[in-house]
Design goal:
This protein is an all-alpha fold and 322 residues long. The chain has two domains: 3-107 and 143-177, no CATH class; 195-321, no CATH class. Helix content is 65%, strand content 0%. The chain has helices at residues 3-17, 25-40, 45-55, 60-73, 78-88, 96-106, 112-121, 127-137, 146-160, 165-177, 185-192, 198-212, 217-230, 236-257, 266-278, 282-292. Helix 13 (217-230) packs antiparallel against helix 14. The longest helix has 22 residues, at 236-257. The chain is flat.
Length: 322
């Protein structure tokens, strides 16, 4: 995403949560620069990673360097390696293969690095594409470490006092939305846009299962969509995928309607970050937030989601729906 578009995403997210006396859109960019400067001067991994996220808005190369320092400061954390890999993506001088190798060694069950490789193939049916397809199929889940990154990086931003606590967490969410979660094209193109042979079809089904076990709603929805494409209409698997997508869409919708009441003060921010630290999956945090607000996490009988726009589920959901 271009820097200007990224800044607009963060502005939209943060101002949507702003209360009286908090920063307006005009002051946000300056506050983020101040926060990034303070964070970059530190040596701990979370501060450096948060600085990398905020620096991406203005200087992609500098952001990658900060992410590399963060990962070097705590090399056993797969979430920091994933962030570094994502910030490395568009830089010719950066060797993402080496970063992916380190991440796979730390978290061999995670297929996220192979989804990225499939994206690079852009739907090709080359031998290399089939190699990455098989590797992705062997994974057990597709994790982007969303909860961990938001839970760990937000306190570092808050500690700079450049932004209020509520705007700090949403600024991190806005910046991370454009970096941490890929568009997931590679998970669907090799399986949806051509007819695979039986071996490849089995691999595509395995990828759908890994996506359904992912730690973000966007991965789970992609898994449900892919399942529907690969199993016969009316089959047990296809019907279960429809139910999963309906449940997730209801939870996203309900959670989004409660967004204005969330993060109202520092205590609310602390409760939210505690949930992120407690759960691996974004869905579990959403459910906990709905229940805490007095709502029900399951849709009423007859509820149907609004059909998504074309491509709406190939990019991260807006921060306000999280």
């Amino acid at each position: 995403m271009k820097s200007a578009a990224l800044l607009l995403l963060i502005v939209a997210a943060v101002t949507g949560y702003a209360r009286a006396g908090e920063l307006d859109a005009q002051g946000l960019e300056k506050a983020m620069v101040n926060a990034a400067t303070a964070l970059a001067g530190r040596s701990d991994a979370d501060s450096l990673a948060a600085a990398a996220l905020f620096t991406k808005v203005s200087d992609a190369a500098r952001a990658e360097q900060l992410a590399a320092r963060a990962s070097a400061a705590d090399p056993k954390r797969p979430d920091l390696l994933w962030l570094h890999a994502q910030l490395c993506y568009d830089l010719q001088a950066c060797d993402r293969v080496a970063i992916d190798g380190k991440l796979h060694a730390l978290d061999p069950d995670n297929g996220a690095v192979f989804i990225h490789r499939l994206q690079e193939q852009d739907g090709a049916r080359s031998a290399e594409a089939m190699q990455w397809l098989a590797a992705a199929a062997a994974s057990k889940r597709v994790d982007f470490y969303w909860n961990t990154l938001i839970a760990r990086l937000t306190p570092a931003v808050i500690s700079t006092r450049a932004l209020p606590a509520s705007q700090s967490v949403v600024a991190v969410i806005g910046a991370a939305s454009a970096v941490v979660i890929p568009p997931l094209r590679g998970a669907t193109v090799p399986c949806r846009d051509w007819v695979p042979n039986e071996e490849q079809r089995a691999q595509c089904k395995a990828i759908a299962g890994s996506l359904l076990q992912g730690d973000t709603v966007i991965a789970q929805v992609a898994g449900a969509n892919l399942t529907e494409k690969l199993w016969p209409a009316g089959s047990r698997e296809a019907l279960a995928a429809q139910d999963t997508r309906r449940l997730l869409m209801y939870q996203i919708s309900t959670n989004g309607k409660q967004a204005e009441q969330r993060l109202s003060d520092e205590a609310a921010v602390t409760r939210y970050l505690d949930k992120l630290a407690r759960y691996r999956r974004e869905q579990d945090v959403i459910v906990a937030e709905i229940v805490e607000a007095g709502g029900k996490p399951t849709p009423p009988a007859g509820w149907t989601p609004v059909p998504p726009r074309d491509g709406a589920l190939t990019a991260p959901l807006p921060p306000a729906t999280r």
